[in-house]
Amino acid sequence: MAAKYLSIQEAMDKGSGKVSVRGWVHRERGSNKLKFVSLRDSTNVIQCVLKREDFEKQWEDIDHLQVETSLLINGEIKKDERAPTGYEIRVIEFKVVGKSENYPITKDHSPEFLADNRHLWLRSRRMISILKIRSTVFGAIHEYFRNEGFYEYHSPIFQSVQCEGGSTLFEVPYFGKRKEVFLGQTWQLYAEPAIFALEKIYTISPSFRAEKSKTSRHLTEYWHAEMEVAWADFKEIMDYGEGLIKFVVQKVLEKNKEELKLLERDLKKLEPIVKKPFIRMTYDEALKILKDKCKMPVTWGKDLRTIEEEKLTKLYDVPLIVSHYPKVVKAFYMTEDPKNPDVVQGCDFLAPEGYGEIIGGSHREPELEEIKKRLKEQGEDPKEYEFYLDTRRYGSVPHGGFGLGVERIITWICGLDNIKDSIPFPRTMERYRP
Ligand code: 4AD
Ligand code: MG
């Protein structure tokens, strides 16, 4: 078959005349005179019709064409209102490239079955749409930070210290030499030393958390977009977070309308994100609103629970930035608020519609002795952190940063029920296969 292959989308854009396309059988049905094959590639799906009168000799093969067979097709394309995607190709010539028999995924399978067959489920139109949006999100994060003058910088994944609490650390047997090597929970302690070199840095990298909770928003391996900036005050850190989220949502709205439609995502839920300023409030203000408007009193000093975050965010159509949490519920590295030493300059960005925390960030505590004290309180040996403590010894400057859970933002943008669908091969407490 001599041909320059067009993608299915390109063939539909051409709209008439001879075309060559290639892809996989998405669906098939037929009679003993006609066979309809809907052919899928990464760009779209198109109905192809094969008539017995044109293929008398090959009819048996055609009759047996099964779902996910890969095919080359030459034919004549035309508009057809009855075809599911508005066009049809009358096939003149075809060639089977790879057979497919008894494809395991048919209809209405349990989530468990689809998870076992994740490698095949990736081909579903639903997963294709999510993966395209995922690609846009990653591209947009890079673009945003680079436009803002950030350098891309990389921290190690094997780390010798914890940063976000010992309870979610994965320990790694590292040649049996050291007792404590962990998979990174965050780049942060290895990023702060680099602001003295590059000032504005970002990364997108896997992070690991041994989360024992089986929730719809926790993975054990997730992609973490993080940034760190020298000379920045706390407000600047929050401004970057808001700018980033606006930029990412705007790019998805520009590039992925079709995919959002296939996922039945209501665009009206996303449009305000680009247009309206986010809501900013302190932890104290959040407690007051929870009490007055949601009838959910929270004792001062307790972290907000999922249910409280959910109630709170459902009051607004844009993300909520809650800041100045009690020191006791936040990490050791956050700056004490100069006006009130019981709270810290740390913030959580909570997505609308109850999707929960998407960003965690803070200004960084400048005082060496204060950091040592808080590490000890957590049962850590400050000696292990000497390399990090040097950031406070040699030309320290005010600085801060945040981490965005990339799957969290994809889950929210796509309107998914569970974070597991936002990543090709989700890893959770119970699932590490295939
Ligand atoms: O709030 P976290 O723990 O903050 C940090 O790790 C900071 N060191 C970041 C920084 O300042 N550089 O995590 C940041 C974000 C959360 O807001 C959440 O979106 C995401 O990471 N996240 C997870 N996403 C999926 N699965 C999990 N188990 C996650 N844990 C955190
Ligand atoms: Mg957090």
Strand tally: 17
Assess the beta-strand content as a share of residues: 25-35%
Mean pLDDT figure:
95
Low-confidence stretches: none
Name given to the CATH homologous superfamily of the largest domain: Bira Bifunctional Protein, Domain 2
> Helix tally?
15
Percent helix: 25-40%
Distance between the termini: 37 Å
**Main sheet characteristics:** 8 strands, mixed
**Strand line-up across the major sheet:** 6-9-10-17-16-15-12-11
Domains, number: 2
Bound molecule kinds, no repeats: 4-amino-1,4-dioxobutan-2-aminium adenosine-5'-monophosphate, magnesium ion
Using the 3D structure, state the CATH architecture of the largest domain.
Answer: 2-Layer Sandwich
CATH class of the largest domain: Alpha Beta
Structure characteristics:
434 residues; alpha+beta; OB fold (Dihydrolipoamide Acetyltransferase, E2P); BirA Bifunctional Protein, domain 2; eight-stranded mixed beta sheet; five-stranded mixed β-barrel; 15 helices; 17 strands; elongated; binds 4-amino-1,4-dioxobutan-2-aminium adenosine-5'-monophosphate; binds magnesium ion
